[in-house]
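User: Please predict the structure of the protein below. I'd like the answer in structure-token form so I can feed it into my own downstream comparison script.

Assistant: Understood. Taking the following sequence of 81 residues as input:
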Amino acid sequence: MEDVLDVYELPYDEKYPVVCMDEKPYQLLGESREPLPMISGSDRKTDSEYVRNGTVSIFAFVEPLGGVHHVSVREHRTAVE
């Protein structure tokens, strides 16, 4: 882990950019019942039951020293991506 942190401390070099990549699978959820609206003195009421609307993969690419970032959302996760 220390070796990785040492890379982040290197000075910026345009020829050899440090690029960080992270992937997060994300589940899309929907309401199974319409939430009850807020009333005076009470919070909005929501049901714990949900409808599963599939999944997506969120990819984030960051070049911290260059100040560049890119986010991509994919409906399907394949080996090519």
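That's the full token string. Residues 2-8 form the longest helix (7 residues).
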